[in-house]
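Sanity check

After download, print the first record. It should look like this:
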Amino acid sequence: GGRVEAPRPQRDHLVRLALGPRSPPPYEAALRACHHAAALAPTATGACGQLSPEQWARLDPSNAHAWLAVAEAAMGRRDPNAVAEALHRVAHAPPAGPSWGRFTRQLLDALPADVAPLEGWVLMNDMAGLEMTTAPRADVAARACSAAALRDTNRAQLCDAVARRLLAGDGDLGHLAVGAGIGRRLGWSPDRLADLDEERQALLRVSAQQVLPAAVSVGCEGIRMHGQYLRTVGEVGGRRAFPRLVAPSAPPLPEWAAMAPAPAASGLVAAPASVASGPAAAWLPGASSPADALTR
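Expected structure tokens:
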């Protein structure tokens, strides 16, 4: 089959909006749309060449996600000094919020009340998938904080600060996995690492038993629950969305999750291929990713 081309007129219009008032939210939205377009058609940049992660960070200098994007771009062009500077900005930024979900929440809030449930399900999954695949990835910090790099005292101090900052926010499981993985390489205390691993395993169990079944269901109740989950992620981030969604008055998450039956021995939840490659893939226990590999 042929390559699916991005809708250039709409994308270029979004770029023009971003270049107008130079406000961080539309700039981030346009940059993400361009990132998606580049993945589909690397040579068809259009107006996207006018945008850059560096400009996003200049517009929103306290946004850790913007600096993660700068670090990723710098790593791609093999500029270690720029990578270190960007990670320094991540370490000193306010705690990072969720890396995805805000635009999906806005979409859900804007959907007409009479939209067909299945149409809404498709739209919110498409938007969530787009947000996830274009979000700045925290695993750039994991690559910069390799075991070899940590032999340098200055880099070890920087990586320690970055890991603590990633863990201080209300972000997603990727931040939790990367922060804990860097901490393990740095030799953090076993008790601290055990607490982080317990949180991660509890979140994965809750997602497998509560969130994923709703994500793969196209029944009205499943669609409603999935929309509620995505809206909550956009508000408070993945680490806080799971317990709020499934047990708002339950005991602390690890204790609550321990009450539920253990998942299959493989640690995986069966899901259709279309789901395993879409938004729900981020919740699959055992998902293969650089961030996940750090915690194993």
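If your output differs, re-run the checksum step. Summary of this record's structure: DSSP finds 16 helices and no strands in the chain.
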